[in-house]
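Handout, tutorial session.
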Amino acid sequence: MPSPAGQSTTASVDRRGFLKTSLGASAGVLAAPAFATWLAAADAKAATGPAAFVDDYKSNVLTNQTPETNAVVRILGGMSQVWKTGDAWDTGRVLDREVLRANMRYCARITTSRTEAQAKEAFLYDRQHQSYAMIGGLGPLAGLYRSGAKAVTSITSAPDGTPAGKINDAVPADAPAGSALGAGSYDSDLGTVAKLVDTVRGPFASGNPAKFTFQYPRPWRMNEDSEVVDTGTKDALGYPVYDSDVIVAPQLLRQRSETPQEDGGFPSGHTNAFHLAGLAYAYAVPERFQELVTRAFELSHTRIMSGMHSTVDVIGGRIMATALTAATLADPANAELKAAARAQALAYFTEKTGTTPDTLYAYAHSDADDAYADREANARAVRARSTYVLPRRGRKEPLTVPKGAEVLLETRLPYLSAAQRREVLRTTALPSGYVLLDGFEQWGRLNLFAAADGYGAFDTDVTVTLDAAAGGFHAADSWRNDIEGDGGLTKRGTGTLRLTGHNRYHGGTVVEDGTLVAASPGALGQGDVRVTGGTLRADEVLRVRGSYVQEGESTLELLLRRNHGPALTVSRRVLLGRGSVLSLRLDAERPPVAGTTVPVLSAPSLRGRFDRVELDSTTLRAVPVHTAEGLSVRLVKR
């Protein structure tokens, strides 16, 4: 069938017996020899290949338990390279000892060093409805969401030890009328958002078909080599004792299943649910996109901390949730629902907070005690938990972004086209070579946290248009990644784009309209810079590695600091045309004083002059001083 880029999709079996599909230049391993039925049919399907996940996601039902019949089993095919499913739940065989031994050792280490507080936290998120647990990622908006959606839970604390029986979430008896578990009630101010979350977590989103397919046991039933060894004894609760170094949290001992043949570990169902709910909330409330992604990773990590799941289980749950969310959001049947949910969330939160679409983002990040306030810490946690113990092997391979994946960024980067959002996903993706991430279509390689920060590379020239009148991210956004590549950037539209990375793109930068903010010394990459309209603003001392040209009705806005070098250093020539304006701001912490001459612009060659030099001061004015090294200003009292 046609690929997302209009290419034909082909399939073949490589020399190791794995089915591989090719989308253009990239290829991903789909299945292992364990899937005999699938491989037998591979040659017959080679001419067309399997359907794209987003077109086949409704095949994920219990009656379909092969990669040929089930799209989820297909995208999780990387697991079949490390684990061969047996005839029974306890007869599977290790194919990749390095990966699965590291997997079990990690689980043993983390559960044996777990604190009591961590055990209680693991219980809380094991028993609490996953959609409710994810609300915490909304930060300052979380309380407003719970009240607006009438979302409640009965699991608010953990027992000190092992409870007497199984515990399940329920609507508390004293909850307000109409309250509901999970994402909340459809009959509420945020009912459409709640419905979107439930739709993403709908009838085709279960991990059970894949659990039955792979039959990889829970970690507490396995030893270091992923072998199930029943000691023949039972613990004080009547459960069989296995030869395992993984210790289940005491609070969860009675929550374990007593039927191991129906209780596989891979993929983690809780992890799947956390990420499904998190990405649905992120679509409706993109102002908290990265924080919701981080929380999904954090809550998923408690599955390992609890002893109930292993690292490969959690990775599998995330992969399937990413694909399932994209498929549900891309489904035309849900187009009206997702748009209504976004509109409802925006209207509700701006009303309740007294903000506008332009100021809601700031409010959503205004709490200093927000558990996810540290963006860099969030990024580190997400990156580490994307691969856990998996070693990286093989050559660097490009990613062909899975069909439909761009919908995941539809509200976070609304000013980009679908093709541009696909390019963002491609250029921010995790590297190839991680066995579970390199399955069919490579959904596991998508790094949504990084993608929310814009492009990772300009491999071709990029033109971006932001519209201040449209509000929200249309009006202003920040790209925080370190951008590389041979292409360049052209900024259009009345909105504001902020570049914060240490960028290394070579194709140059053009500002035609609106405002482009250089928030780091290397924000503008390695090429020439041309300003023909709008404003180029530097929030830091700025370096232009090529030439700098300014012409037309345009403004260069620079920051002046006391006892500092030039605000702008240009490696090659500077050409200033008619209509160009220089606007200077005094640094709030180290402002230069009257009577001093402050270097502004340094370059080997400067031709032309600014039509006007402005200074944001009521007591000082700036007098231009042209020198052989460029331009300085002398500050004099008005």
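The second record follows below. Compare its token runs with those of the first.
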Amino acid sequence: MGGEQRNLFIALGLMLAIMLGYQFLVTGPAQERQRAALEAEQASLIDQEADPNLPAALTAQPTVSALDRPEALATAQRVEINAPSVEGSFSLTGARFDDLRLRRHTVEVGGDELISLLNPIGSEDVFYVRDGWQSPTPGFTDLPGGTTVWSLISGDVLTTETPVVIGYDSPSGLHFERTISIDENYLFTVSDSVTNTTGSDVELQRYGLVRDEGMPTDLTNNMAVFEGALAVVDGRLIQRKFSKLEDGEEDEASGVGGWSGITMRYWMAAAIPAQDRSFTARFRTIERAGITAFESSYVETAQILPAGASLNSVTHIFAGAKELDVLQAAQNDQGIQKLDMAINWGWLWFLARPFVWLLHHLENLTGNVGLAILALTLMVKIVMFPLANRAFASMAKMKTVQPKVAEIKERYAADQQKQQQAMMELYKKEKINPLAGCLPILPQIPIFFALYQTLFNAIEMRHAPFFGWIRDLAAPDPTNMWNLFGLLPFDPSSWPILGGVLAIGIWPILMGLTMAAQQALNPPPPDPMQAKIFAFLPFVFTIMLAGFASGLVIYWAWNNALSVAQQYVIMRRHGNETQLDKLIAHIRDRMKGDRS
């Protein structure tokens, strides 16, 4: 009996092993292939953004037959958007947000043309956001996508007080009802209710995508600015520049909480999933109508909707300017994870973030962004005063002993070892640390780069006026020295060189003068060639920074001026005569000579 039981157990074990092996090696992979095929089918549905029933011009290559904006907008039924910060419309085809202008931001300083952020398919610079559904359940390929025509249930105009309700009934038996609302800024709330009347359970996945067709023509091309696809997934920031995407680099990440979008220097459009659901964000490029389309999207994990039941799902869309207070308000009010990471803080984010916050509040206090920049620079100078004071004091002492150093070099010109020993004894006797002038400056380097990052990305600088001829702190100084800053009756801006590389305005020249003044206060380099190079640097920096945003040049000039004043006081305190003193004495002597 015992042997029969043993044989039975062995037979059962073999049968179980065969069944598990068959499941693992045959049935399981077959199911995975079937599921992958279904996912690929759904992904292809997401790609279908052109309705085949639309005019042929819309499905043709935009670079060849792009429609005028009004013609492209007229190809689909639309619902008007009229809010304090934005105006435009969204299309009932695909429930696509593809027509949005920013009311607080114009193309030109003092102009009437608003920034057009989102643009419809068929026009130039196609850029839109869309929210849809897909299903891994076989047979459900008719869910709301890019070609779905929604019906208007209620609401004629989308305002902050009046939401719009649209609906769609799929042939398979799913009823979708979508309520769209907008806040006073740039945040849309998209609330969907889905009812299953199919008679069977259905798996549903909600997705959102942002698509930009063609390489943007107004890229900044500066290392301090990020432009491309970005996402926050589970607290982690992921970025891919347009150039990387164009080279075929893709990326995806999964987690809970975050968003996915495409950003320019000052603007962004983002699709934002429910913050309590797991999702996968993805960056990719696709070929569409003969051009490369850049896409940033998310897909939520599937949820089962039983037969006869309903579910509610809330997502958001952000489309507007990257204003810090607006981003943080949406982040806090709606619980959107790290939406303010849309601003490119750089690797020195722990310094740049408080600088942006300070700049914003100083602007509110002073009423002028330029004055806020000056105040912020002064505050940083005050904080760094002890370190800078040590550095300048050490420079002053070094300048005092320069004659003795020159004497030692002349005495031991043939013996470098004795020369170094004598110099060390001199430094020890005079209580001078040769490195003391450099070490305190090191902490100021990251602060400078963080301020640079802040000013280059702060939208507060865009179209912000300063005093005099500066009407836009984000643009270069408009004056040009080649027509004596406007005194001569011709405009050199159209000239190849004098209006380009050598177009130097008043503020860059002031910056160069302050840099030269600061160099004059420092001990001259011992090597004559180094001294010539250092003397030439103010001219180089003047030419280099002439094309920078005037706000940055003003900051640099003001920072140099504060450093010159601080260093001059310290030098005089240590009894050093500066080049400025010599210049003043020379002018005084000349004036006395003229009187006599």
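Points raised in discussion: Confidence is low (pLDDT under 50) at residues 1-16, 37-64.
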